[in-house]
Design a protein that fits this description.
mainly alpha; 2 domains
Length: about 260
């Protein structure tokens, strides 16, 4: 009998007028408020901005690699000329563009790392090195397409060997800009919102109702909020006796509510 009584005291009081739909909607509303509070955190916005930067950078690296792979054929044709696979120079010509591309990619990675730390890279030697590498790729590709080994000029190949090196050159110039803008967006999103000015206890109580982990029906929560406002106006903490007077609940349940509100 005593165990059943204790169990009934610990049972949360429910409003018989509340339907299951109302309780489900109230739970969904509480979840929506928690999600909104988390998504509004500036640190989460900074993480999202940084993830977007990583995604865009990976895509740019992928397309840059594809473009350099295409230009490697033009460089090899320019250097090898009428040579055949039996000549070592024919095989060695395939290593020139990968070497140029390796230098360019290493330079771009270093530039991206400097920008990630807020250091601008505007030194003239860096710019000239990128332009020489990409300019050599452009010249060799256009020349090989205008002077093919079989002597027949293909307008489509001339167009591709002209446009793709230009696109690769512009990609190399745009990637640092993308890094800088994404880092600026991340830093702006991570700015700390200034703390609000202090307000009187009564105002705080009015703005933030007394909430506990134990879910209360609407009319009981309203009565608890009203009692909390009254007690804080008197300059003291809410006690279990105050909760019993407001809600007419068992003493043990009132003590649990008071402990949670105090925490």
């Amino acid at each position: 009998m005593s165990e059943k009584s204790n169990h009934s005291n610990e049972t949360e009081p429910e409003d018989p007028r509340e339907t299951r739909t109302v309780r489900r909607l109230r739970a969904q509303l509480d979840e929506a408020q928690d999600i909104h509070q988390l998504t509004a955190n500036p640190l989460l916005a900074a993480v999202r901005a940084d993830r977007f930067r990583v995604s865009v950078t990976r895509s740019m690296w992928c397309f840059l690699t594809c473009g350099l792979g295409f230009t490697a054929t033009g460089v090899q044709a320019f250097l090898a000329g009428h040579l055949g696979p039996s000549d070592p120079m024919w095989w060695g010509a395939w290593l020139v563009e990968p070497a140029f591309a390796g230098i360019l990619i290493t330079l771009l990675r270093w530039e991206a790392q400097m920008l990630a730390h807020g250091l601008a890279v505007d030194d003239r030697p860096v710019k000239w090195l990128k332009r020489v590498l990409l300019g050599a790729t452009l010249i060799t590709n256009v020349w090989s397409s205008l002077r093919p080994p079989d002597g027949q000029i293909n307008a489509g190949m001339v167009f591709l060997h002209l446009v793709i090196p230009l696109v690769v050159f512009l990609l190399a110039e745009v990637m640092p800009v993308i890094q800088a803008r994404c880092n600026a967006a991340r830093d702006k999103a991570a700015e700390i919102v200034p703390a609000p000015t202090s307000t009187p206890p009564s105002a705080v109580t009015q703005a933030a109702p007394a909430r506990t982990a134990l879910r209360l029906p609407g009319h009981l929560q309203g009565a608890l909020d009203a009692k909390a406002n009254e007690v804080h106006a008197e300059g003291r903490a809410l006690t279990a006796q105050d909760i019993q007077e407001a809600l007419n609940v068992p003493e043990e349940y009132a003590a649990r509510l008071a402990a949670q509100l105090a925490a």
